[in-house]
Amino acid sequence: MLDFDLAEMYGIETRTLKQAVRRNIKRFNGDDFMFEVTRDEYNSLRSQIVILDIQGRGKYSKYLPFAFTELGVAMLSSVLNSDTAIEINRNIMRAFVAIRQLILNNPTAQIKEINNEIHDLKLYIEEVLTDYNDINENTRMQIELINETLAEMQGKKALPSRKQVGFSAPQYTKDDESSQ
User: Which of 35-39, 61-65, 156-160, 170-174 shows the lowest per-residue confidence on average (mean pLDDT)?
Assistant: First the structure.
């Protein structure tokens, strides 16, 4: 991020931000914290803005801006002494803790475990469905055997008639009536 963007974010003037950086330059040694943009880079950035706001004297700095990396932004928030800078520094530290927690509680291990469970469930369901299909096949075969047996029985002679079972009313004849 460029210094003027950070100054706006922190609610301070760009010159105040640059002054704080220059007073604590040892904290920003190395390109992994910040670097000063070259004249060509700055001109190419300015040329991307089609309409320049020319109101107000000193609107555009004659000094080249600083570009800060994420480490530089974290260091800058600890150098500046404002309520906004303190709050941003706290949020940065919370973000670091959250990232550490994310690394420690590796979600990919949990995802792998869930994938293994899903795989096991799929295998179990396939086994159950195979058993179910086997049962259905056995049932179908038994029904076919029953139907074949019934067809054979119908094709054979009729079953011998059986004597009726149960109570039957006595049948009277005319001879029975005369004897009474």
Answer: 156-160
Q: Which residue is it, tokens 């309409």?
A: 51
CA 90 vs CA 2, 126, 163: distances in Å: 21, 53, 103
What is the count of structural domains for the chain? 2
Encoded tokens for 140: 């179908």
**Interacting residues of 170 by C-beta distance below 8 A, sequence separation 6+:** none
Task: Give yes or no: residues 91 and 36 share one domain.
Answer: yes
Residues 90-100 have pLDDT tens digits of 887 788 788 88
The amino acid at residue 178 is S
Its domain, for residue 128, covers 106-152
If asked whether residues 100 and 29 sit together in one domain, one would say yes
The tens digit of pLDDT for each residue in 29-72 reads 878 888 888 888 887 876 555 544 545 444 556 778 888 888 88
Angle at CA of residue 110, ends 106 and 112, nearest 5°: 110
CB 12 within 8 A of CB 80: yes
Q: Where are the alpha helices (DSSP H) in the chain?
A: 3-10, 14-23, 39-47, 70-79, 83-104, 107-155, 174-179
**CA dist., res. 44 & res. 38, Å (int):** 10
Q: Which residues pair with 34 in a beta bridge?
A: 68
Instruction: Report residue 44 as tokens.
Output: 């190419």
